[in-house]
Design goal:
The chain is about 85% helix and about 0% strand. The chain has helices spanning about 5-35, 40-65, 70-95, 100-120. The two termini are about 25 Å apart.
Length: about 120
């Protein structure tokens, strides 16, 4: 694959990742506003955060699937995996390690990858 094809493949993924994080930011702002007005349990907040990941990855998979006409499920899987990778790197940078969160991180990875793939398949 030459450099021109690599750039044309990387740009839609980067654009979709930016869109996914914009969606994540908007949903988290909405969740924070809701938390300010309504008393929510820790479990409800965790469910809201997980739902944010799922919606963002699904949207990213859907967007990349619309751009790529072939193997849409695979492209959706890739953007879900890249989304999780950035989350993981951010978590590692802030917390300086996983600190016993391995099961939670694996579950988050599966949710991000599968919802991205589902978005790609339904695009």
């Amino acid at each position: 694959m030459d450099k021109e094809n690599q750039k044309s493949s990387a740009m839609p993924i980067l654009a979709d990742l930016v869109a996914m994080y914009v969606i994540t930011g908007l949903l988290l702002v909405f969740l924070a506003a809701l938390l300010g007005h309504v008393e929510m349990s820790d479990a409800a907040v965790s469910i809201g955060i997980i739902a944010t990941y799922i919606v963002s990855c699904f949207a990213g998979g859907f967007l990349i699937g619309k751009k790529k006409k072939r193997k849409k499920y695979l492209w959706g899987l890739c953007v879900g995996a890249f989304y999780f990778a950035v989350l993981l790197l951010g978590n590692l940078a802030v917390n300086r390690g996983l600190d016993g969160q391995l099961a939670h991180m694996l579950a988050t990875a599966v949710l991000c990858i599968l919802s991205g793939m589902a978005g790609g398949m339904l695009s």
